[in-house]
Specification:
The protein is mainly beta. 3% of the residues lie in helices and 47% in strands. It has 1 helix and 28 strands. The strands form 7 sheets. Strands 1-28-27-26 form a 4-stranded antiparallel beta sheet, with helices on one face. A 4-stranded antiparallel beta sheet has the order 2-3-4-5, with no helix packed on it.
């Protein structure tokens, strides 16, 4: 179907589902709850032509409903979670590929496949003995990644490099693994900053995330050109009025993130941002709640009720499975022309959540 530009809405049917998935993918980020300005219009809605078709992903035998968590850069592999009908039964990690489904037997509980590369290798997190433990799924086998203490594997590139973070006694520390079985390496932190998170890694090894000081102050979006680089702050002109900034994802030199900026009237505004890694140049996006980016610079995110796609032509609603078809969907990843997420089959009380894929042209 052809998408129409995004318009503001106030309903929040998927508030619980959005928190479930996005909270897992961004665990331990302490952003304040800020009212979002979601009334932005597309830059050229009269000429924009974006066609996206939504399809429900199949459910593995023995399970009742699913959600997606990640997608590889080609849109070939989709990672997710499958939920059995019995609420007390364990959740399973799953991967869709060529219309088939693999149920992945992971150690521990609460598995999350946070990222998948073009080879179908994935990294994520499980909970063991009450602590988050990073795992990898490589060549069909689950690997417990090396880490001292609690931690998270957040992204993997096609070369097998992985980034994430570790929690020590007082905060998070950004971590890099050269490959899933490698020893963890702590990324450099700027002077005055003791903590940070690695969130995304590009195919050339460029890493993004954010760092935060040990003596108070807000988070700062950060970029490492490689695992051995000292790194640089992803600067923005509003630095004097910026409370904090974050970099969430990187693809083909495009970086997506956000910042909380005090306006001239003292109001704290949540702004979506897009940078170029080569130059550090940035732009403020029309929509504030963005989370992932693809090699074309397209970003995806969520409103309180549904998923959106943002291109250079504007911000567009992604259709759901229920009626009205804009309601009840949440996005969790984007590849070249494929967006993944989950959606309600009905807005009634008996509606189930299912993993979905949008194919956009």
């Amino acid at each position: 179907m052809s998408l129409k530009p995004y318009t503001a809405t106030t309903r929040s049917l998927l508030a619980g589902g959005s928190a479930l998935i996005m909270g897992a993918a961004t665990v331990a980020i302490s952003s304040p709850a800020i009212a979002q300005d979601t009334t932005a219009s597309p830059a050229s809605s009269e000429t924009a032509v974006i066609d996206c078709e939504v399809r429900q992903l199949p459910v593995p035998a023995g399970y009742e409903w699913t959600v997606t968590v990640s997608v590889d850069p080609t849109g070939t592999y989709i990672g997710g979670r499958a939920y059995p009908a019995e609420a007390t039964a364990p959740v399973s990690a799953i991967m869709w590929h060529d219309d088939g489904i693999t149920v992945i037997d992971t150690p521990g509980e609460e598995p999350w496949l946070n990222s998948i590369n073009a080879h179908g290798d994935a990294v994520g997190t499980v909970t063991k003995d009450g602590q988050a433990v990073p795992i990898a799924y490589v060549d069909g086998e689950v690997i417990s990644m090396k880490l001292y203490g609690e931690g998270y594997a957040m992204d993997i590139n096609d070369a097998g490099e992985v980034v994430g973070y570790r929690h020590d006694g007082s905060g998070a520390v950004p971590i890099y693994w050269e490959y899933p079985e490698a020893e963890p390496q702590v990324l450099a932190l700027p002077e005055g900053h003791s903590f940070g998170m690695g969130r995304g890694i590009d195919e050339d090894g460029t890493i993004v995330g954010h760092v935060f000081p040990h003596a108070g102050g807000g988070d700062v979006a950060y970029l490492w050109k490689s695992a051995n680089d000292d790194g640089d702050i992803l600067d923005i002109d509003h630095v004097e009025g910026t409370m904090d900034s974050f970099a969430f994802d990187i693809s083909n030199g495009w970086i997506v993130g956000s910042a909380h900026i005090f306006g001239d009237d003292g109001t704290l505004e949540h702004q979506g941002l897009r940078w170029r890694s080569e130059t550090g140049e940035y732009e403020i996006l029309a929509h504030s709640n963005v989370s992932h980016i693809n090699a074309n610079g397209w970003t995806v995110g969520n409103t309180p009720t549904h998923a959106i796609l943002q291109t250079d032509d504007g911000v567009f609603d992604l259709p759901g499975l229920a009626q009205p078809d804009e309601i009840g969907s949440t996005v969790t990843g984007i590849s070249g022309r494929s967006v993944v997420g989950f959606a309600l089959t009905s807005t009634e009380a008996d509606g189930l959540t299912h993993g979905v894929e949008w194919r956009c042209e």
